[in-house]
């Protein structure tokens, strides 16, 4: 094994300890940071994610509340709930857990969130802010990845970064954040023809395809930083990423494990964004 392991669990615990103090400071001043999570339907994966977010909030000192609607709820009812939360001074962050049921129009729901409470950074305004280099809230997963690169002093400027995945949640914002940091960025997807041609020239390879172990050692440039955003369950019940960790670790310079890599950082950055939103609220209230 050559690669240095980027331990997301360890980094997440350091970041959370630091931000716990910031949350405590606000609470002492009478402003406890608050996060509202909206969930529609009973997607089992979403239920686990939401449970983990609520637990993480309580550990760091953030008030959280879950507004759970049944899958057949009319979209207008959810929009009404968001409008009330937008005005609620105890709620500084609002998150709509995705995916929404198919009869919902994602953008209508997400753009109803007040931009200063959009801690996921998915509101079209905040997407535009990110793309134009005026980041308001960075989406949590790419934000966590950039922090991992920084902590390990992995150079980004002038390097070739390849992102496999073009989702609004990970691939696209990840590419924009790397571009903003001076990387030359290629965005691929699982459909890209001759994908290894691109990946083999990547100094930084971020993989978010949802295809178990699809990136193998032959696809990786020796010494590259390989960031695995995937989390998949194999038929034997084990968890694995989108990268074939056992072979790639012999070629890469840095690699994130699954579990214990990007996953713990994603929720951490949600906590950071929520505390940041509360700090900004306090600052504006005192002006
Ligand atoms: N579903 C999967 N990932 C995410 C995420 O980061 N935020 C939200 N709101 N929903 C998700």
Count of DSSP strands: 11
Between the first and last Cα atoms, what is the distance in angstroms? 55 Å
Strand content: 15-25%
Would you tell me which CATH topology of the largest domain applies?
A: Rossmann fold
Short description:
The chain is an alpha/beta fold. Helices cover 41% and strands 15% of the residues.
Tell me about this structure.
The chain has 287 residues and is α/β, with parallel strands linked by helices. The chain folds into two domains: 30-114, Rossmann fold (3-Layer(aba) Sandwich), CATH 3.40.50.10860; 140-263, Rossmann fold. The chain has ten helices and eleven strands. The chain has helices at 8-28, 44-60, 75-87, 106-110, 124-131, 140-151, 171-180, 195-199, 245-248, 262-285, and strands spanning 4-5, 34-40, 63-69, 93-96, 160-164, 184-188, 204-207, 225-228, 232-233, 239-240, 254-255. The strands form three sheets. A six-stranded parallel β-sheet has the order 1-11-8-7-5-6. Strands 3-2-4 form a three-stranded parallel β-sheet, sandwiched between helices. A two-stranded antiparallel ribbon has the order 9-10. α6 packs across α10. Guanine binds at residues 95-98, 120, 140-141, 169. The site of guanine has 8 residues, from β4 and α6.
